[in-house]
Design a protein that fits this description.
Helix content is 50%, strand content 13%. It is built from ten helices and seven strands. A seven-stranded parallel β-sheet has the order 3-2-1-4-5-6-7, sandwiched between helices. The longest helix is centred in the middle third of the chain and has 21 residues, at 108-128. The chain binds NADP nicotinamide-adenine-dinucleotide phosphate. NADP nicotinamide-adenine-dinucleotide phosphate is lined by residues 16-22, 40-42, 45, 67-69, 94-98, 117, 143, 145, 188, 190-191, 193-195, 198.
Length: 271
């Protein structure tokens, strides 16, 4: 007797789960009963998080310690999931980083690495599991930024990478809805994580109204995905910022963003 192969157990694949917003996404998905697969390079951190989630009485997450920027990473992840007898119901493309500084002064190779992770890997993982996302009526949660809506002198490549995330995610939202697959871009403002140190900022930007905690981003992003929302911008102040490009002249906007990044640079070089 022949028939369709049995569906593998559904999981939520979360990239960048060893720190910051990604670790909180893992907690939120686990709290809602999803079996979670934690992806990042720092294996010990991932196991510690898996232990915490299991200790809270939720299904023990699987740990995949991989560098997402290695060639063929989606095939490697697919093979590892296959060996575990699971397949993605949700993909959370959260891993990402930025660099503060003038594009002409930062290392070109480091800036290309931003595009590699924030754009190429996010695209590869968004497209790699469409069949299983459809089978489980799941979805894709891509982490953009308020930067997705603005030009970003002072963090030019990072802002451009996040503009891609928003545009790509909105298009996927439209294209995949017929297959019952939800796609959401969550676009935070400033979130206190390791992101700022990695970007070369020594101090958080001063505008507290734009700050949101990682756990709040994760909860809001999860809710938006489950509701099938296309774009989620946490907080009224952040929503206001994303509205500015519609009403302000582009040249004025460029000068304001440049000034604010320059101030972050001054903060970065102060003790
Ligand atoms: N923090 C903010 O203010 C802010 C605002 C808007 C948007 N975002 C976005 O939110 C997302 C998460 O950022 P975050 O603030 O939580 O930053 P974070 O604390 O620095 O965490 C970044 C995560 O990405 C992982 N990662 C980096 N490179 C990787 C690689 N090559 N392979 C595998 N994993 C890698 C890191 O893990 P390992 O180092 O262990 O590999 C870490 O788990 C990013 O896309 C960021 O652009 C952040």
């Amino acid at each position: 007797m022949s028939g369709a192969a049995p569906m593998r157990r559904p999981v939520a694949l979360i990239t960048g789960a060893s720190a910051g917003i990604g670790a909180e996404f893992a907690r939120v998905f686990a709290q809602h009963g999803h079996c979670v697969v934690l992806v990042a390079r720092r294996e010990r951190r991932l196991h510690e998080l898996a232990d915490q989630i299991a200790a809270a009485g939720q299904p023990r997450p699987h740990v995949l310690a991989v560098d997402l920027c290695c060639n063929g990473v989606s095939k490697q992840i697919a093979a590892e999931l296959d060996a575990l007898g699971v397949e993605p119901q949700y993909v959370v493309n959260n891993a990402g980083f930025g660099l503060l500084g003038a594009a002409a002064e930062l290392e070109p190779a480091e800036q290309l690495a931003i595009i590699e992770l924030n754009v190429r890997v996010l695209t590869e993982l968004s497209l790699a599991f469409i069949d299983s996302l459809g089978r489980h009526r799941g979805g894709i949660l891509n982490v953009g930024s308020v930067a997705s809506f603005l030009p970003g002198p002072g963090m030019a490549v990072y802002y451009a990478s996040k503009a891609f995330v928003l545009s790509f995610s909105e298009s996927l939202h439209q294209e995949l809805s017929a297959q019952g697959i939800r796609v959401t871009a969550v676009c935070p403002g400033v979130v206190p994580t390791e992101f700022q140190a990695r970007a070369g900022m020594k101090k958080m930007p001063g505008w507290k109204l734009l700050h949101t905690q990682p756990a709040d981003i994760a909860a809001a992003g999860y809710a938006a995905l489950m509701q099938g929302q296309r774009v989620m911008i946490p907080g009224v102040a952040n929503k206001f910022v994303t509205f500015l490009p519609r009403i302000l002249p582009r040249g004025f906007l460029l000068r304001q963003v440049a000034r604010s990044q320059f101030n972050r640079h001054k903060s970065a070089s102060s003790p």
